[in-house]
Amino acid sequence: MQIAESRAKMARAAGLAGIVLCLGVLACRVPAAPRTPLGTTETTVEPQGFSLAPADVLVAPVRDMSGAFDSVRAPLRQALYTGLVARLFSPLRLEHVDGRIESGRAEPTLDGSDEILLRTSVYRWDTGALESNGVVETEVEVELVRPLDGAPTVLWRTFLSRRLTVEMPTVRRSSRGELVRVLADRLGAEILLELPPRGSVAPPPAAEPTRGIAPQSSPATQPTDGPAPAGSAPAPGATPPASVAPRPVPPARLQ
Question: Taking Cα atoms as reference points, which of 142, 144, 154 lies closest to residue 191?
């Protein structure tokens, strides 16, 4: 009897273990939450502010929100710093920018309205297929911010979701850090393609002033009696006087 009960308990335990294993397998096969489709680009520009944007740009340290092992923060920041010159901006030296970051803050403080800040956030940096296929999938957001009227104003913003690739010969002869730098350069170039060159965005046209109704002019006064003065033109709308035909002279009578 005890042997039978023991076997029954073992069977129940095995059944529960099988159920747990099946649930684990099913959980592993459940697809992850959908991400932004690769190739997505969302860009917005504030024309009025961007048309007046100053040239000096502070490139803030990149915020890596992806939690990836390979940090792309430094190489991506350097790629954006270098590429801003081609967009007719003047980025300040990164060492100078770092010196203006106060303790406990993630980005520098702007001195005034004559400077703008380039803020970058990496939300995804998936290098799972880097060494096997030379592929990295990434999502990144970049903003150009200027303090106006005491509050920061976003002059330009872009969000990119990309699959970046490296040729396999390059993958085989390069270290992982070198590959990250190559991919960061390519990502920075794609980001800056969305940034209009400074001075290329025209401000929106000014609203036209409301036009009032012009006062209606009073009709010209017409003469009531008497002929018009000699040499004067008849008043507008007046009926010209009928011309008087000369009286015919009777013929002379024959005597």
Answer: 142
Q: Give the helix ranges, DSSP H, for 30-108.
A: 47-51, 73-83, 94-99
| 133-142: pLDDT as tens digits | 999 999 999 9
80-126 confidence digits (pLDDT tens): 999 999 999 999 999 999 999 988 788 888 877 789 999 999 999 99
Whether 154 contacts 126, CB under 8 Å: no
Alpha helices in the chain (DSSP H): 2-29, 47-51, 73-83, 94-99, 130-133, 168-173, 176-193
Joined together, the tokens standing for residue 140 give 């990144």
Statement: residue 73 has pLDDT above 90: yes
Q: What are the phi and psi torsion angles at 78 (to 5°)?
A: -65, -40
| Region for 237 from its dihedrals, namely left if φ exceeds 0, alpha if ψ lies in -120 to 50, beta otherwise | left
3-class secondary-structure state, position 90: strand
Is residue 27 pLDDT above 50, yes or no?
no
Residue type, 106: A
Cβ neighbourhood burial of 242 (10 Å; 0-12, 13-18, 19+): exposed
Positive or negative CA dihedral for 86, 191, 169, 126? positive
